[in-house]
Predict the 3D structure of the following.
Amino acid sequence: MALRRHLLALTAAGLAAPAILRAQTAPSQPSAAIPDAMMADGRFASFIVLLERGTGMNLLRSAGQFTVFAPTDAGVDSIPANLRSELIGTPTNSNSSGGGNQGALAALVNLHIVDGIHPAAGFTQPSTLLRSRNGTGLKVTRTARNTLEVTLADQEGPGVGGLNLPRPATILTPGVTAANGIILPINVALLK
């Protein structure tokens, strides 16, 4: 009887080994599109509202390959309240079909989206220039602290009248992989 149990245990271990090896070597393929991966992550609820109202959801559900520099909820909160209100409308007219400045909101959303997949680990040069979906250059710079910062390529130096321009956005970890791209969380929204 003991021999029989021993043989059954060895057989079970032999059958389980290939499954264990497959689990260790086979990369998991994300099946969710970017908006669904953002919702599942939980850090991007405010940006999802901007995507819905700025008509970016359909684009990010498509089969294209995208990198989204997605501001976290705190990052969207960094947009001045009067500008957010102008973009998405007031509570009385904030439905997705009206209210707010739809053109400016679409431009803001597209400022955060780049064609192609650009993982954070791929930014090995001191700086990399990318083109956002609204045509603005985004400069990703590796800092002396070994962090990655994103700035608008045309916003270097002091602004008009010596005023400071928006601070760079820092890429946060972890990034989120989706079926059609990658989401790189940033700590502030990009503003132009």
User: Anything to note?
Assistant: The domain at 34-186 is CATH 2.30.180.10 (FAS1 domain). The first helix runs from residue 2 to 25. The first strand starts at residue 66 and ends at 71. Helices lie at 2-25, 34-41, 45-53, 57-61, 73-77, 81-88, 102-111.
